[in-house]
Amino acid sequence: MKILVINGVNLNMLGKRETELYGSESLNDLEKKLSELNYDVELEFFQSNSEEEIINKIHTQKEENYHCGIFNFGAHTHTNISIRDAILAVNFPFYEVHISNVFAREEFRHTSFFSDIALGCIVGLGFDGYEFALTKIVRGKNGS
Ligand code: DQA
Known about the structure:
alpha/beta
């Protein structure tokens, strides 16, 4: 099964930006960690700072038929209806992940345009959040 991991705006700066919040490891380190779990899945990693590129990537669900997504849209989480509509347009099942605990931060980060359409949300657990989402996908909806 194919899993699409999307990291959105500014997440290419992991390891360099606000390290007290996001840690000192890079996006590359994160992708390596997920690959090294060695689950029997095909992982595809995508990062972009462009709304258009993210939307176009989500639209490929029609041809690619990804089993599930693990999405962290960065600040677009709190602002972007177009990406939400793209997900709904192609019926893309996904987990929402945030590295930091958005609920312990500014109020504008408490709102997400994605949480209500996600299979589940993991916030504030650092890179582990991505690992837990992937583990959940591998176990299946009813797995434990
Ligand atoms: C983030 C939280 C967002 O509020 C912020 O804009 C980010 C990263 C996180 O992973 O904690 O860029 O999505």
